[in-house]
Design a protein that fits this description.
22% strand, 4-stranded antiparallel sheet, alpha/beta, Rossmann fold, globular, 12 strands, binds magnesium ion, 333 residues, binds adenosine-5'-triphosphate
């Protein structure tokens, strides 16, 4: 059985003028210990997916339909008590900004001890000992002293390590990390990612990693889901997505990577921008930006189908493959 099984998840925002769809029938599975990357440009619906999985959406957002089965329990139907118990205990979320999670007026120790005691029957001292252990796991030097400090007394990198320690406090089976290192220096970003990978692997924790960075996805995850305008448009093994992407959008994302550009050449950005909710075009949502778009693409939503090594939602995938093949032959000739 999958650890997580998401079926036809649809999220809407009830705005004053109209109700808009932010997630449109998302389905995927996650096995125990598996690491999944969610990528896509700003506004694709990555964070909304993360919030929805924890049933943490707040008004005007709501889950309109679908199932989120976590170890067989439907998160969508859970009562507040059960939800509270699940969050932290079984699923934890890490955000871009550590200060979203950390309370500025409590010491690190107070926050960790409170969290533990809210979920487990532990004495203060027992909880303190677990907190110290978890800080050691994330390589925080002199953890006893850190427990006495307030969040603002720590560096950004240190804070994010503490967030990871807090996420791991109750030994969850799944961590959802939303751009966990974007706010940090580049040098520290790599350290934190490496730490997360190590901890997930050694504790058999599943990871959903939300990021703009395809480099990070290829380092961290086994499977990748590409999102566009609230839909999954391509998914498969991370290796296949990076090495042989089929959707023109995914191809565009990969061509825009700095390492795909020769020195002196300009970065090949995808033209245009992600549509706002409520302005999503008919047919394939990517069609106005797609150089391969046909009349069918402008009127019909492409279904997900298996092609090469991936699942992809594109009407023209066969033609693309054919043209790419022809180009390769021409280059060789
Ligand atoms: N509270 C809200 N009310 C209305 N619309 C919202 C709200 N929060 C998000 N949205 C919209 O939902 C869509 C998806 O947003 P989401 O935050 O999931 O994007 P994202 O992929 O995480 O982008 P980013 O990479 O910038 O974090 C966007 O169009 C956004 O404007
Ligand atoms: Mg986001």
């Amino acid at each position: 059985m999958s650890l997580l099984s998401v079926r036809d998840l649809t999220v809407k925002f009830a705005m004053r003028e109209q109700t808009v769809t932010a997630l449109n029938g998302i389905s995927f599975d996650l096995a125990k210990g598996e690491r999944l990357g969610i990528v896509g440009e700003s506004g694709a619906g990555k964070s909304i997916t993360g919030f929805a999985l924890m049933n943490l959406l707040s008004r005007p957002g709501y889950i309109d339909s679908g199932e989120i089965l976590f170890e067989g329990d439907d998160v969508v139907q859970m009562k507040p008590r059960a939800l509270q118990d699940m969050r932290g205990n079984r699923m934890a979320m890490i955000f871009q900004d550590p200060m979203v999670t950390l309370n500025p007026v409590l010491t690190i120790g107070e926050q960790m001890v409170e969290t533990l005691r809210a979920h487990r029957q532990l004495s203060r001292e027992e909880a303190r000992q677990i907190a110290i252990l978890k800080l050691r796991e994330v390589y925080i030097p002199s953890p006893e002293e850190r427990l006495e400090q307030y969040p603002h007394e720590l560096s950004g990198g240190m804070r994010q390590r503490i967030i990871i320690a807090i996420a791991l406090l109750l030994d969850p089976q799944l961590i959802i990390a939303d751009e966990p290192t974007t706010a940090l220096d580049v040098t520290i970003q790599a350290d934190i990612m490496e730490l997360m990978l190590e901890l997930c692997q050694s504790n058999q924790v599943s990871l959903i990693l939300i990021t703009h960075d395809l480099g990070v996805v290829s380092q961290m995850t086994e499977r990748t889901m590409v999102m566009y305008a609230g839909r999954i448009i391509e998914t498969g093994s991370t290796r296949a997505i990076i090495n042989d992407p089929q959707h023109p959008y995914t191809q565009g994302l990969i061509n825009a990577l700095p390492q795909q550009t020769k020195p002196g050449q300009r970065l090949k950005q995808i033209q245009g921008t992600m549509p706002a909710l409520g302005r999503i075009p008919a047919g394939c949502p990517f069609n106005p930006r797609c150089e391969y778009a046909t009349a069918t693409c402008r009127s019909q939503i492409p279904p997900m189908s298996q092609f090469a090594q991936v699942q992809v939602a594109c009407h023209e995938v066969q033609r693309l493959q054919f043209e790419a093949e022809a180009n390769r032959k021409e280059e060789l000739a």
